[in-house]
Automatic annotation (TrEMBL):
Superkingdom: Bacteria
InterPro entries per the UniProt record, alphabetical: Abi_system_AbiD/AbiF-like (IPR011664)
Name recorded for this polypeptide: Abi family protein
Organism for this UniProt entry: Fodinisporobacter ferrooxydans
């Protein structure tokens, strides 16, 4: 009998647990309240994708901060939005 892959999913981490995961990987989080508010708005996986180039062996490079990763996300978000508005508005 084939096992249902959805039954083996691990439960989602709380926002506080996500913060601890990021810290355990060497990410500097100066303002945990801001980080939690951000993670509530932006999916953990979406945001963490912006830090992939700042990691090596699943650890962030020394000095990398949550705010830097968020700034990369914001730049990309605004750039994409402005580009779409310019080229799709005719």
């Amino acid at each position: 009998m084939e096992q249902n892959p959805f039954l083996s999913l691990k439960p989602p981490a709380t926002f506080e647990e996500q913060i601890q995961i990021l810290k355990s990987r060497g990410l500097i989080i100066e303002d945990e309240d801001f980080a939690i508010r951000t993670l509530k708005k932006i999916n953990y996986y979406r945001l963490s994708a912006y830090g992939l180039s700042l990691k090596q062996n699943d650890q962030y490079q020394p000095g990398v901060t949550f705010n830097q990763i968020y700034a990369l996300y914001e730049f990309d978000h605004l750039f994409s939005k402005n580009t779409k508005e310019k080229y799709l508005s005719g």
